[in-house]
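Action item from last week, closing it out:
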Amino acid sequence: MPPRRAVQRIGSVLFGHRPPDARSGALISLLHAVKRVHKVFEGDRHELAARAKAIADGHSPAVQAVHDAVAEEMVLATTKDGFLR
């Protein structure tokens, strides 16, 4: 699938035009975990984040585990390098 088509497919899930499947839900959850939904899709940053969070929260435990791992790594990276000291 070409990248543009993939983005359109994921966007249709994010904007509520179709239900999330395992793949789109995982990708949206990953974008939400790294706080980059607004970099891929146009719209209000807070609204996009809320939509992505709703999809991530309603998705599988595996997706939640990825989200937690990314969040933990972000905390470790910022504290280890002295950003929060």
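Closing note: The radius of gyration is 14 Å.
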